[in-house]
Amino acid sequence: MRARKMAVVGGAIAAAVCAVAFVAGPGASAAPLPGGLGPCVGDACPDKYPPVHNEGFAGRDSGINVFAGGDFLVREGAAEAEGKVVVLGGFDMAKRAGASSIYNIGIVGVGSRVPPPDGSDFLTTGKNVTIAPNQRLLAEGGVVRYGGTVTGTVVGTLKQDPNAAEPYKQLRTQLQEASTCYDKSAATGTAKNEGYRTLFTGDGKSALQVFNVDFDLTGPGGGMQGLAFAGIPAGATVLVNLVGGNRVINTYTGDLADQDPINHLREKLLWNFPDASKVKIAGQAQFQGSVLVGNPSSDTTVTASGTNGRFFTAGNLLHTSEGAAGGQEFHAYPFNGDLPDCTTPTTSTTPTSTTSTSSTTTSSTEPTSSTTSTSSTTSTTTTEPTSTTSSSTTSSSATSTTSTSSTTSSSTVPTGPSETSSSTAPTSSSSETSSSATSSSSQPASSASSTSPTTSSSSSEAPVPITTTSDNSGGVAPGTGPSDQGPLASTGADIRGYLIGGGALLLIGGALVAAVAVRRKRS
Q1: Residues 457-460: contacts with CB within 8 Å, 24+ apart?
Q2: In angstroms, how far is the first alpha carbon of the chain from the final one?
Q3: Closest by alpha carbon to 330, among 276, 289, 361, 295?
Q4: Closest to 195 (Cα-Cα) out of 158, 129, 250, 114
Q5: What is the b/e burial string over 140-170, where b = at least 16 CB atoms within 10 angstroms of the residue's CB?
Q6: Euclidean distance between CA atoms 364 and 162, whole angstroms
Q7: Which residues pair with 201 in a beta bridge?
Q8: Could you give the CA distance from residue 119 to residue 111 in angstroms, rounded to a whole number?
Q9: CA separation for the pair 81, 64 (Å, rounded)
Q10: Would you call 241 helix, strand, or coil by DSSP?
């Protein structure tokens, strides 16, 4: 009787553990962005990123801050792009007459002040670099590595390399697949456009807060509005999926001094546009968080005063201004969030024709780098990795059962709601720096809405060739790329180890059952 009770308890424990592992297993793991993108890279990264400022360097970062799978265009009064910039297509600069004639890349006057390492690649292009007459691209202290030709004035070290963009080509497909994968995440909270603001309300416990939005983040008539988050636990990653063919964010939320509550979410906030063909990010704010645009055929326009976070698009990128405004800037800040793991393997079980009549069960496990095979006298299990689904089939004799399951869960302690704030941006300039980081914000009353600014498109003359300021145009090896850095390890908890524990307990329970059977037979 005692042995029988032990067998029942052992079997129950094994079944419970296996059930937990199946429900919360591979799908519950978390991962960073693909290709090692997101975090600061190198041994000179700051322990903590400072607010936007114009003082000394706070550190160095070899990671990509801006990536465009198509072309990168600079128009109107846009000022600068901080950090490492990689463009698979061409870089084309043709600002309007009367605006500053320079565009800084790599090192800027105002930003996080965490530029790429001195002498490293500040700008990499797969095709041509084209600068309009009487304008200058400043990459002082760094390298402009290009795959095609250079037309116009570039200050910095020029290195022609037909394979310049080769180390980064896979990122375009990886970003597209990741963007689509993230869009499949179940929402943990709600988003409501209240006119003067959009309020995102989380569940107060999940480590990954997901919001699925099918509307523009704009006020009435397309004007600016606030962005507020409530019910977001401390340290949680926030994923906002904005679905639809044409999406706009026009906001005044986010400041230079990190006083606005949304600034505190910056390094774990990702705005994902999985299917949009046109994206626009506008407003008189320091826009907070990283951006991912997954459609390779997309056109993204950025007119916000400042963007603070990584900016990755599989398509084209236009950095410009609206009306008489100018000084738009990309500021380099990392993304350190834990996102859904889009490389989770699928487990499938293929039954064999062998049936067991023995009271003894044997098993052998032979791990490899990508598959695991466990065999006994009753079935054979083969694991094959895929990108999104998980299925399991279990067979005994002539009975077959198929089930599919995928779930994520996590919890932390909630924090209070966010509010919006207003700020006036300082202006900074240097002898060869065009950054003015002007970011003035005005917050309307709850019943008012901002008037949408007039959009002006570029009509600059086509650039004509002039003498470049390079004394080094010879081809060299590509700069540090994803192949040198390697993908980052998963930063989330992977609990697939429960499967191993569950299997062990299942064997113990089976042994106990067998012992009971032998004892009853003898008696």
Answers
A1: 457/75, 458/73, 458/75, 458/76, 458/94, 458/96, 458/320, 459/96, 460/75, 460/94, 460/95, 460/96, 460/97, 460/132
A2: 12
A3: 289
A4: 250
A5: ebbbbbbbbebbbbbbbbbbbbeebbbbbee
A6: 51
A7: 190, 230
A8: 20
A9: 11
A10: strand
8 A C-beta contact, residue 286 and residue 255:
yes
Q: Quote the CA–CA distance of 226 and 212 in Å, as a whole number.
A: 18
Tokens of 127: 């095709």
Q: What is the residue type of 52? A: V
pLDDT tens, residue order, the chain (523 aa): 444 454 444 444 444 434 433 333 334 457 899 999 999 999 999 999 999 999 999 999 999 999 999 999 999 999 999 999 999 999 999 999 999 999 999 999 999 999 999 999 999 999 999 999 999 999 999 999 999 999 999 999 999 999 999 999 999 999 999 999 999 999 999 999 999 999 999 999 999 999 999 999 999 999 999 999 999 999 999 999 999 999 999 999 999 999 999 999 999 999 999 999 999 999 999 999 999 999 999 999 999 999 999 999 999 999 999 988 899 999 999 999 999 998 755 444 444 333 333 333 333 333 333 333 333 333 333 333 333 333 333 333 333 333 333 333 333 333 333 333 333 333 333 334 443 433 333 344 333 333 333 333 333 333 333 333 444 433 333 334 443 333 333 333 343 444 445 555 566 666 665 665 556 555 5
The H-or-E segment that residue 396 falls in is strand 391-396
| Angstrom distances, CA of residue 357 to CA of 335, 360, 380 | 56, 9, 17
How would DSSP label each residue in 84-108?
EEEESS-EEEEEPTTS-SEEEEES-
Look up the pTM and report it. Answer: 0.67
Give the C-alpha separation, 128 to 113, whole Å: 28
Contact 161, 145 (CB under 8 A): yes
Pairwise CA distance, residues 418 & 156, whole Å: 43
Please name the residues in contact with 402: beta carbons below 8 A apart, sequence gap of 6 or more. Answer: 391, 392, 393
Q: Which uninterrupted H or E stretch holds 197?
A: strand 197-201
- For 373, the token pair is 């095979």
Virtual CA dihedral for 112, 210, 386, 488, nearest 10 degrees? 20
Q: What is the DSSP string of 136-195?
A: EEEEEEEEEEESS-EESEEEEEEEE-TTTTGGGHHHHHHHHHHHHHHHTSPPSSEEEE-S
Nearest in space to 340 (alpha carbons), one of 210, 202, 497 = 210
State the DSSP string of 303-358: -SSEEES-EEESSEEEE---TT----EEE-------EE-TTPPEEEEEE-S----S
Structural contact between residues 299 and 69, judged by C-beta atoms closer than 8 angstroms = no
> Distance (Å, rounded) from C-alpha 62 to C-alpha 117?
6
